[in-house]
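in:
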């Protein structure tokens, strides 16, 4: 089988799944991608109807005519009971979304020889978090970018102007839009959680960490046997996900089953990450999710992760635990330490969070 290889941050060489999948005569895929556990599962699509909450952001903006207390309550319920919701009327200009779709698609259309130039030790193009020869591989490639604070950007891994003329500008604009949404949502969460807004927002102030995982899942001839992304929760504060084409594939774990998410066109998908679970002492929970792939169509998505400022201690908020509650999680001295722990492990359910859980 013909394939090309790239070197990742860890001492293993990896295949580009896009290159692998482009071989039209490929019928049997390498065993490292095959997930035996999927064989026992019932047809996921038939397990549940999709009832994931839909939140209207235009009704959460205080002081605006459309602000609605009922929407605030719906939002609280979505954070508490689901950990995942769709966001509509989010106010991101259509041209910003469209340019993002266009430039990200152009990136994955570049020849492998060009894309691999955007691969560095801990960011850029390729596959990440592969630590052993035995580990199962995900059916997807990605481009991982550190996007905020601006000083943390490494433009070496952002497609250059001669490749995709507007790529850097497009991602920059999109990144700023995501910051705005994050700020509104986190502000509203403090109200629902009854915690001090100033203190909480200070953790996620200007200069806090934002990164993007831009995912490309090629079609797979044995789609039902692979996963585009292994089950995991996001080790971040808040994730905002944009599905770039109308191909569904995301599933969230709910009531011990995998619930498929059918995204409304133009909606963004929001999910609570491990850090918010820790800060809120478990009132809001991060939810495991995974991606299944199609045997016909490629799928693309951009997950924008929002962490805290690097100096912030990550632990249950004192205001919550001084109210007579016991801390359910250990604290870690700052965000960078938290990230180091997360980056040293494969994606594996909520295993990162489990390291922090206190057994009371
Ligand atoms: O592609 C998706 O829908 C989900 C991606 C995801 O979970 C991630 O990048 O963390
Ligand atoms: Fe994720």
């Amino acid at each position: 089988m013909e394939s090309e290889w790239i070197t990742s941050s860890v001492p293993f060489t990896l295949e580009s799944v896009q290159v692998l999948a482009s071989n039209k005569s490929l019928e049997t895929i390498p065993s490292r991608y095959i997930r035996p556990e999927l064989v026992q599962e019932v047809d996921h699509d038939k397990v549940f109807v999709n009832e994931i909450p839909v939140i209207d952001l235009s009704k959460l903006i205080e002081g605006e005519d459309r602000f609605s207390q009922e929407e605030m309550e719906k939002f609280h319920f979505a954070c508490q009971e689901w950990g995942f919701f769709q966001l509509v009327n989010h106010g991101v200009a259509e041209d910003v979304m469209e340019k993002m779709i266009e430039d990200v698609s152009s990136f994955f259309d570049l020849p492998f020889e060009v894309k691999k130039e955007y691969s560095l030790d801990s960011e850029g193009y390729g596959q990440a978090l592969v630590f052993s020869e035995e580990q199962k591989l995900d059916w997807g490639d990605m481009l991982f970018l550190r996007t905020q604070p601006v000083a943390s950007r490494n433009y070496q891994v952002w497609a250059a102007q001669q490749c995709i003329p507007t790529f850097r500008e497009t991602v920059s604009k999109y990144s700023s839009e995501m910051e705005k949404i994050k700020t509104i949502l986190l502000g509203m969460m403090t109200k629902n959680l009854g915690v001090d807004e100033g203190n909480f927002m200070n953790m996620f102030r200007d200069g806090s960490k934002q990164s993007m995982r831009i995912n490309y899942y090629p079609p797979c001839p044995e789609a039902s046997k692979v996963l585009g992304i292994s089950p995991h929760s996001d080790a971040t504060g808040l994730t905002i996900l944009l599905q770039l084409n109308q191909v569904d594939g995301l599933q969230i774990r709910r009531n011990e089953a995998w619930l498929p998410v059918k995204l409304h066109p133009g909606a963004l998908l929001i999910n609570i990450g491990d850090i918010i679970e820790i800060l809120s002492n478990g009132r809001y929970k991060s939810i495991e999710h995974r991606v299944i792939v199609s045997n016909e169509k490629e799928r693309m998505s951009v997950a924008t992760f929002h962490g805290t400022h690097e100096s912030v201690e990550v632990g249950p908020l004192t205001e919550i635990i001084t109210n007579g509650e016991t801390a359910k999680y250990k604290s870690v001295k700052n965000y960078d330490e938290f990230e180091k722990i997360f980056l040293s492990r494969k994606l594996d359910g909520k295993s990162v969070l489990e390291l922090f859980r206190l057994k009371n």
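note: The chain has one domain: 43-354.
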